[in-house]
Amino acid sequence: MDQSETIATPGETNLLPEELNEEIFRLKKELNAVILAHYYQESEIQDLADFIGDSLELSRKASQTDADVIVFAGVHFMAETAKILSPDKTVLLPDLEAGCSLADSAPADLFRHYRLQHPDHLSLTYINCTAEVKALSDIIVTSSSAERILRELPEDIPVLFAPDRNLGQYLQRVTGRDMLLWQGTCLVHEQFSERKIFALRNEHPEAKLIAHPECEEVILDQADFVGSTSALLKFTQTDPSPAFIVATEPGIIHQMEKASPNKLFIPAPPDSSCACNECPYMKLNTREKLYLCMRDRKPEITMDESLRRRALAPLQRMLDLTSDSSTNIHSLLEEIRLPFTG
Ligand code: 13P
Ligand code: SF4
Fold first, then answer.
1. Could you give phi then psi for residue 287, rounded to 5 degrees?
2. pLDDT in tens, 243-266
């Protein structure tokens, strides 16, 4: 197609959905690009992706791809993570405004101050944070790797967990390990209504409640299964229940329905009548913006090299600790300099 025939402004092309799909496939070949998508993306984007995964799987993919361009259908901290891991690749994000309430809750200057107040604490930091906060952290974790990594840390090391207090509290409960908790929350996962979920369970006694650990304790306490997005998806495939109430962003239901077409998936309702169980940041990306970012090679994620190197170290520790070649935690701990001096 001759692009000059198409009058296109951001978010507004003349292309029909099928034409957008064709153009995206053409550009993927032309750019030697890979499209990575998180489960919370809208279903049309998931259907165009080369790989869909949770935060850990997407990070691993981004570190291993041989594509020249990574098109990241997710939020800013995820695309930034891809750039940290693959600095020689061009990393594109369909909408640069796609942020995250957890990342916003931890500005780097406040986080540095907090660490200086607790210099002997090792910082186990959730991947939902900026590159600057990663650079101030000791080990990065995701919802699928946090418990495993925390359990490996020797008991005598005091730990500080940021920025998600719900995930931190959940980890404390399942491991019995005390941690200092930063008080951030995810604006999607803190919305679920205990009362409405209770009513749904009465209406569907055959349904299991499955929840992401970013949910509040009252929801997690009732859940039949708690796990990362990938773990929730897997659970619905292996558990024999015919129905599930899904307490996480409903974008993941697309893959659940594809994998188990005969099962019923009910999105857990938020407290108010709005659609605020949808992540407003994830949903900023559209198929049209995906096309435009590939066509225009922007918005592109760029990063200062010294920041990238500092952010890489704690991220690489997570990848090493969760890889098949079992890395010894003690050798990693030798690299971590405590007390923290800023
Ligand atoms: P996971 O993909 O690790 O389950 O995290 C969910 C999330 O909130 C991503 O922003
Ligand atoms: Fe951030 Fe929550 Fe959206 Fe995930 S769902 S990107 S944690 S705001």
1. -60, -35
2. 999 999 999 999 999 999 999 999
